[in-house]
Amino acid sequence: MGQNNRPVEKLEQILGERFGIEILNAMGIAIVVLDPDFNIIWANREYRKI
């Protein structure tokens, strides 16, 4: 496939090092993950459209 997994690796690295805050949608699926300073470290496509 050759997809770029760099964002996933970065997210795993950040979450492995420190606590991340997940904001879930109504179905319980994470739409955004924030670091302790409330910076967005990951967001799904639906969140980015908002």
UniProtKB/TrEMBL annotation:
<protein>
    <recommendedName>
        <fullName>PAS domain-containing protein</fullName>
    </recommendedName>
</protein>
<dbReference type="InterPro" id="IPR035965">
    <property type="entry name" value="PAS-like_dom_sf"/>
</dbReference>
